Amino acid sequence: MKNLIFGFSVIALIFLTGCDNNNNNDTELPNLPYTYTNWMSKIDDGSSIADITIPGTHDSGAFDCDTGATELKWVLAQSLTIRQQLDLGVRWLDIRVRAQETDNGYYLGVYHDKYYLNLSFYSVLKTAKEFLEDHPSEAVMITIKQEHSSLSDGDFSKEIYKKLEAIGLSKFYLEQDSLPAMGEVRGKIVVFRRFALGDLGHKMGYNVYWNDQTTGEGHHHNNYSFYVQDYYHVDPGTYFSKTQYVWATMLHALGGGHDGTLYLNYASAYATWHPNKTVASSISPLVDAYVKALYHVGKAGVIFVNFAGTPDTSVDDNLVPHLVKHIIEINEGL
């Protein structure tokens, strides 16, 4: 294992702005380079979701749209719609939700920081439900975080729960003790949340939390354990360090075996002076090399990426559109 690490060290030698991603816009969405719509059908029913290598997207709702705003280069994190991401093979969504009070109650919009993405939280859930109706062998995990609003945990939980009820509670896996096996969650949306329930009075999935800019930390909550790497604010001098944190977390997941720990590993990053695509083009190729080195080893955790499945559109792009495919292929037999 030390030789493997050394080898890869050598390799490296919002309502303020809205994004129009409605169906009637003129933005041409990229074609998918491949689809993995049923890959979880090959996972044993008895396998814990903690023992599966799962591709996820960071800020899943921040996909391509055309407003002409310069700052969008720092807002956009994806180019594919939620449905396209799921068809590609992504099975873990990262959704940031703002609760905004209206005359008819709270509107839950999907945000990236202060930027509204013209996407509702309800529409994300509906898209995931429809995907699972088309592909019942699969499960979709979703992490929900309150973004750019400040409701109490209890009040925010109640608003989120209302949207789950509107979709149909039977479509969700809302247990919050030990992590489930694959057979328990096929056809369901599995809820993870970055907020406490307060006085909700209902189960609503697993609480996950971590310190800002963490290079790796473990937690035990109720009857489940999780480990998170989310060192997201980088500069050109720390791009390589970021990839090493990703790699170390993959190895940690591999070395942990079937210990039941869920590994959440963010390969996404943000830099003050470089647009998100530029940062991803610098980081994703090395992450892809690490991923391919673990072909069919089994467990390497959940790996969140920016610009999943996005083709290179300029000579400066190196976004590795096959990265999600390679993450899936870490699983044995896929």
Describe the structure.
With about 325 residues, the chain is of the alpha/beta class. It has one domain (about 1-330): TIM Barrel (Alpha-Beta Barrel), CATH 3.20.20.190. It contains nine helices and 14 strands. Strands 1, 2, 3, 4, 5, 6, 7, 8, 9, 10, 12 and 14 form a twelve-stranded mixed sheet that branches. It has a two-stranded parallel ribbon with strand order 11-13. The model is unreliable at about 1-15 and about 20-25 (pLDDT under 50).
Overview in brief:
This protein is 29% helix and 21% strand.
**In sequence order, what are the helices and strands, one letter per element?**
HEHHEEEHEHEHEEEEEHEEHEH
Number of domain modules: 1
Compute the CA-based radius of gyration: 19 Å
> In CATH terms, what is the fold-level topology?
TIM Barrel
SS strand fraction: 15-25%
Structural class: alpha/beta
Considering the protein shown, what is the CATH homologous superfamily?
Phosphatidylinositol (PI) phosphodiesterase
Task: Determine the fraction of residues in helical runs and give it as a percent range.
Answer: 25-40%
* Record field, number of beta strands: 14
**Cα-to-Cα separation, first versus last residue:** 23 Å
The level-1 CATH class: Alpha Beta
Q: Report the major sheet.
A: 12 strands, mixed
Instruction: Classify the oligomer.
Output: single chain
Instruction: Note the overall shape.
Output: globular
Pick out the low-confidence regions: 2-17, 20-27
- Mean pLDDT, to the nearest integer, reads 90
Number of helices: 9
User: So, CATH architecture?
Assistant: Alpha-Beta Barrel
